[in-house]
């Protein structure tokens, strides 16, 4: 029941964000790689190293809301490695080549396998669990170093057009995102605590995945990096506002 409700919300939320994005993209007249970069900066949000601590803080370590956040995190790990790869390459590569890249991503096999292992209560042997744990712990540090290198290599001479694009991205991610989430949980009639957890999960800034994709496939790296930086900085205010406005039932 919980998994079904969270997944239903997630797909409706992503679809609603996509529709809003398409409207903005058409109004702004984006072309080529900028279309994918704008989509990625809004659709991919930091549900792991930002979302999980935020969930534990906002809900006082509640196991129920944490399980919701983990489900969102797993889906947010899957989509950048499928749709995200397609998006940044669709305007310049053949579908066959893009598909080969996607099927080489380990995460698209690991997440379904994790669901199966969890469902059948299969324990991972220690000789596998230990290195997996090390790799998992290293990911966030590696991603942050990648972002730092990219930010450090930029000139930070932001044009008016780029500043406008970053502002649009941050507004869609930090303000429109939680509003869409509120509309969807209201329409679905989800329980109060679940609704609050899903709205909070939707309020976090842009994911590092958008930068990693931009760097790996050389697609609008400056916009992607600055969108992550600015949205994370602005989230100090916006996330606080979302939590304040929610009457979180603890």
How would you portray this structure in words?
Its main location: membrane. With 250 residues, the chain is mostly helical. The protein has a single domain, classed as Up-down Bundle (Na+/H+ antiporter like fold), CATH 1.20.1530. The protein has 12 helices and no strands. α2 runs parallel beside α12. It is globular and about 50 Å long. The two termini are 21 Å apart. The relative contact order is 0.17. The mean pLDDT is 86.
Give a brief outline of the structure.
This protein is 78% helix and 0% strand. It has 12 helices and no strands. Helix 2 (33-43) runs antiparallel to helix 5 (80-89) and helix 8 packs across helix 11 (208-216).
Can you lay out the helices and strands and say which pair or pack?
Elements: H1 2-28, H2 33-43, H3 51-58, H4 63-78, H5 80-89, H6 95-103, H7 107-119, H8 126-152, H9 160-188, H10 192-201, H11 208-216, H12 221-245
* Gap from first CA to last CA: 21 Å
CATH level 1 name: Mainly Alpha
Strand content: under 5%
Strand segment tally: 0
Outline: globular
Q: Give the mean pLDDT.
A: 86
**Which spans have pLDDT < 50 for at least 5 consecutive residues?**
none
Tally of DSSP helical segments: 12
Structural class: mainly alpha
Rg (C-alpha, Å): 18 Å
The count of domains is 1
Largest sheet: none
CATH second-level architecture = Up-down Bundle
The CATH topology: Na+/H+ antiporter like fold
What string, H for helix and E for strand, traces the elements in order? HHHHHHHHHHHH
> Helical percent range?
over 70%
């Amino acid at each position: 029941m919980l998994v079904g409700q969270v997944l239903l919300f997630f797909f409706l939320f992503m679809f609603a964000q996509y529709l809003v994005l398409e409207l903005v993209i058409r109004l702004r007249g984006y072309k080529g790689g900028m279309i994918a970069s704008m989509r990625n900066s809004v659709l991919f949000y930091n549900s792991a190293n930002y979302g999980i601590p935020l969930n534990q803080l906002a809900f006082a370590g509640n196991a129920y809301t944490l399980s919701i956040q983990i489900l969102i995190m797993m889906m947010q790990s899957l989509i950048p490695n499928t749709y995200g790869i397609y998006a940044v390459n669709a305007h310049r590569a053949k579908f066959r080549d893009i598909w080969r890249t996607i099927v080489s991503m380990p995460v698209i096999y690991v997440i379904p396998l994790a669901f199966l292992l969890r469902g059948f209560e299969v324990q991972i042997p220690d000789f596998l669990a230990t290195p997996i744990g090390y790799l998992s712990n290293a990911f966030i540090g590696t991603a942050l170093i990648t972002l730092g290198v990219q930010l450090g290599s930029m000139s930070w001479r932001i044009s008016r057009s780029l500043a406008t694009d970053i502002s649009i991205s941050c507004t869609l991610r930090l303000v429109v995102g939680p509003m869409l989430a509120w509309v969807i949980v209201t329409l679905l009639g989800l329980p109060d605590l679940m609704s609050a957890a899903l709205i909070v999960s939707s309020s976090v800034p842009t994911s590092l995945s958008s930068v990693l994709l931009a760097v790996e496939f050389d697609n609008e790296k400056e916009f992607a990096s600055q969108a992550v930086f600015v949205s994370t900085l602005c989230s100090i205010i916006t996330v606080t506002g979302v939590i304040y406005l929610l009457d979180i039932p603890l």
